[in-house]
Write a structure and sequence with these properties.
It contains 15 helices and 15 strands. Strand 10, helix 6 and strand 11 form a beta-alpha-beta unit. The chain is α/β, with parallel strands linked by helices. Helix 13 packs parallel to helix 15. The two termini are about 25 Å apart. The structure holds zinc ion (ZN). Zinc ion binds next to helix 6.
Length: about 600
């Protein structure tokens, strides 16, 4: 039985009709003058602009001022010696590449042909080309690797393991896109610091890359790479609004997005910042009709700190998030010109019905969900609130293809993403109005639904299906069937728990304490199921920013059967331990659902 979607037509209509575009328009005008690199004056000016506007609107705002660990890529030089002589090639270093501080790293180029990501969802994939597939001496070792694609962390790490001394990435178009290549999520710890990239990395455009590949095909090409990056703890500003609910104010929805940018970043993410400001204005106006609280946060450190702002918030407010956070809703790159399709929107399984119905009811468009990537400001998965949205509307796929666009990670699919071209024409206030209608519809439903509107049966069923698939893939090597059985039982127990909870609420609508207890149980479901489906490491930690599959602790089950025979016993031991951890997590949740503990009975 799927849960019914809670709606409140009067309130949703009032919220959508309250949308105005003057604050968003003014914010875009202001942000178009600010290159919002984290820790710089321009970013601080943007943070203070948000605070000024909020205060002018009478909305209370708290301004946090943490120091975040940031890497600002100043510049890089690439010189090439081939059959045509010596020349320099225009290039940009990604954030967190090693800074050689002017020292030249020289060597022979080793070209490793690769492919460009087919879509946004595969941007973080490590291409097969980066993996070593032959025994004997690795041609990459001791050389400067040249390959196609964005300098994503898993790929950079893979080439470092193979002994590359520097890395050159050929981008798919005429522009060089800015980016970040560390796998460390947020501020490093003493342990994770060792994962910081150790090689200088530069990115070049397609025409220069093609010429270099051709030269390398004719004979040996030598190159010299120099990089200049500024890395360290930098003072940043984090504005956070809290609008307190009138019925259950401790329970809150976290709505958030980053306000730092590459260049002036209009589509990524000034439009999102404008959306957050307008949401604050509309929701503040409706505050007497909102049952639960909403926090609205603007993060620094997303682009040059690997989500350092949201990670800082997760670390600093971990206890409140754990106990009270209903869900987190990420806003990145909405409101881009031509972005009318909602066909690659990220949400967790339990949010499917809420999100697709909100999009349909707000703008009359069909929607299709995809599993959230380990990306964006999803810095909360290891605490465990349900996550929804990240990017939202996109230029329809056929239109992108007609325009010759390749896959990017924002701007509604516009390839101005992370380049100096991300200017005012990338945005559209009319599209932003549509996206605001989607956000408001979703938010009002979350804040006022008597029971949190997430279908944790769907989340448990999703996990069960994944583990069953892993169990089949592992064959005789390891037995995951006890966990499959646990999850099957959990699916049934959550379904009947929800039915009982709704019946009880109908019978006693005025029982505030009872309702709060039921919602606390729903949040405990998320605290188990979100880490189970989305985390590899411990709760309250932050996994690396690399691609991994669902129920990632058990992902090795998919490769154990094809692993080298001498490796299989080690993989088996690891899988058994992870299975045991997951069984314990599920056991704890099932105990909470027992009628005498957290169940619905009196
Ligand atoms: Zn963004």
């Amino acid at each position: 039985m799927a849960i019914d979607v809670y709606t409140d037509d009067l309130l949703e209509t009032a919220a959508r009709e309250a949308i105005r575009l003057d604050e968003p328009g003014a914010l875009l005008d202001r942000f178009a003058t600010l290159v919002r690199e984290s820790g710089t004056h321009a970013e601080h000016d943007a943070g203070r602009y948000l605070v000024e506007r909020l205060e002018a609107l009478g909305i209370p705002v708290r301004l946090h001022a943490p120091e975040l660990y940031i890497s600002l890529p100043d510049r890089a030089e690439l010189s090439v010696v081939d059959d045509g002589g010596t020349r320099s090639v225009r290039c940009r270093p990604p954030s967190f590449a090693r800074s050689t501080a002017g020292e030249q790293i020289s060597g022979e180029i080793c070209y490793v042909p690769s492919r460009y990501a087919a879509g946004t969802a595969s941007l973080f994939d490590v291409p097969d080309a980066a993996r070593r597939d032959s025994a004997g001496e690795d041609p990459v070792a001791g050389r400067i690797v040249l390959t196609e694609g964005f300098s994503m962390p898993g790929t950079v790490q893979a080439f470092e393991r193979r002994g590359a001394i520097a890395q050159i990435f050929i981008h798919p178009g005429a522009n060089i896109h800015e980016g970040i290549c560390t796998s460390i999520w947020g501020a490093p710890t003493a342990e994770s610091l060792t994962r910081k990239p150790r090689t200088p990395v530069v990115c070049i455009n397609r025409p220069d890359g093609t010429a270099l590949v051709e030269a390398a095909g004719r004979g040996p090409v030598r190159a010299g790479v120099r990089t200049w990056l500024r890395e360290g703890w930098m003072p940043c500003l984090v504005p956070v609004v809290e609008i307190r609910g009138r019925v259950d104010p401790d329970e809150f929805l976290l709505v958030h997005g980053h306000y730092d940018s590459w260049y002036v970043g209009i589509g990524d993410n000034a439009t999102g910042d404008a959306a957050l400001l307008e949401l604050a204005r509309v929701l503040w106006g409706l505050r007497d009709r909102l049952d639960r609280s909403v926090r609205i946060a603007w993060w620094p450190g997303h682009s040059t700190g690997r989500y350092a702002g949201s990670t800082w918030y997760a670390d600093s407010f971990a206890d409140e998030i754990d106990e009270w956070c209903i869900a987190q809703l990420d806003i990145d790159s909405p409101g881009c010109a031509g972005a009318t399709a909602y066909e690659e929107v990220m949400w967790m399984a339990e949010a499917e019905r809420l999100c697709s119905s909100s999009i349909r009811d707000a703008v009359g468009a069909p929607a299709r969900g995809v599993r959230p990537l380990r990306a964006g400001d999803y810095s909360f998965n290891q605490i465990g609130p349900t996550g929804l949205y990240m990017l939202l509307s996109n230029i329809p796929a056929e239109e992108r293809e007609a325009r010759g666009f390749y896959a990017v990670g924002g701007c509604g699919g516009n390839i101005a993403w992370h380049t100096p071209d991300d200017l005012m024409p990338v945005a559209s206030l009319d599209i932003l109005r549509r996206d605001l209608a989607v956000y408001l519809t979703t938010i009002v439903r979350i804040l006022n639904a008597p029971l949190h509107p997430f279908d944790y049966t769907a989340a448990a069923e999703d996990a069960r299906a994944v583990v069953e698939r892993y169990d089949r893939a592992a064959g005789e090597e390891v037995d995951l069937s006890p966990l499959v059985a646990d999850l099957s039982a959990l699916v049934g127990e959550i379904t009947s728990w929800r039915a009982d909870a709704e019946a009880r609420l109908r019978a006693r609508p005025a029982d505030t304490a009872g309702r709060r207890r039921l919602n606390a149980v729903l949040r405990r479901m998320a605290r188990t199921l979100v880490p189970l489906s989305y985390a590899r490491g411990e709760r309250f930690d932050h996994d690396p920013a690399t691609k991994f599959g669902p129920v990632p602790r058990l992902e090795a089950a998919t490769t154990i059967a094809s692993a080298a025979p001498e490796m299989r016993p080690f993989l088996r031991v690891g899988l058994i331990r992870e299975r045991n951890k997951l069984r314990a997590m599920v056991r704890e949740l099932r105990a909470i659902l027992r009628p005498d503990v957290g169940g619905v009975a009196d």
